[in-house]
Amino acid sequence: MMVCNAADFGVTMLDVDDPGQTQAADDFVMAHDAGTPFHRAAWLRAITQATGHRALLLAAVAPSGQIRGILPLHHVKSRLFGDALVSCAFAVDGGLLVTDDRAVAPLAAAAQGLARTRGGPPLELRGGVAPGDEWQRCEGEYVGFVRPLAADDDAELLAVPRKHRAELRKALANPALSVEAGRSERLRRDHYRVYAASVRNLGTPVFPAKLFQSVLQQFGKDADLLVVRDGDRPVSAVLTLYHQGRVMPYWGGGVADARRLRSNELMYYRLMSHGRDRGMTQFDFGRSKAGSGQAAWKKSFGFDPAPRVYHSWSVDGTRRDVNPNSAKYQRRIEYWKRLPLPVANILGPLISRGLG
């Protein structure tokens, strides 16, 4: 399906269920230095499979037939939070990915055309090159954290600033703590149990269990789980993506006792070693709200923050409000923290699908 034509490029909607078309798009992503897991067909399919949000993969194609740029989108629909075309849903990155600057304008125009034909939902591009002057630049809200992995475990320990290193040493010296990595059903259950408790304690609805299952299924060997146990009790857990040499811990957390046990410190330290064993060279700690406690914690682990730049556009200039720091949501967050965990785990997935 041809969506838009411009000078040297045609913008085509690729079929995310067509192996040939998605292989061409994935080859483009994997060869691009700025490609992310969120540009991959695996992410698009996983989100659609788990939430029902339709995936829309735009590709700018040169006269030679070669892809010169892509823009993956999900049409997120929610009665609570409103609709949006997001690149990409539940992702912290994505956005326009091009090898020729001439592909930017036709891809951005095609996305705007999709928004108009789909009832005018706002467009949200998370990362990527700037789509144009008429788009709103969103900077200062989020920061990212990336640094090279050290040569070995000893060097990694020394890379952690002294104060935080002392906390990590306490966890390393605790014989009751053990670490397991893999993709087993037990690890999947443990991860969801820990993650659900963690986000409830932060006042956030938990995502559907099917979302994590779908990501693990679609990414195969490029995704796994790591769980820290205190005896037999899981206390910290993380689902990690691996992409082009990067370890990317994505959905992680700990139970209320994790702070006392320093199990989160141990989890990420062991994940660094696990990633090194897999041949990874960079550790991407993901994004955090600028000025948040989470951002300060990552900095204390030896990571320097770098601004994340997003872009948005809408027909009428409006934007969704899905910011948990918004005054609109503060009372709801405090209420959510007090919900019994079983109740939060029933209601959470029904709400969180719309956050995207």
From TrEMBL:
InterPro entries the UniProt entry points to: Acyl_CoA_acyltransferase, BioF2-like_GNAT_dom, PEP-CTERM_FemAB-rel
Domain BioF2-like acetyltransferase: 162-299
Gene3D superfamilies given in the database record: 3.40.630.30
Transmembrane segments: none
UniProt name for this protein: Peptidoglycan bridge formation protein FemAB
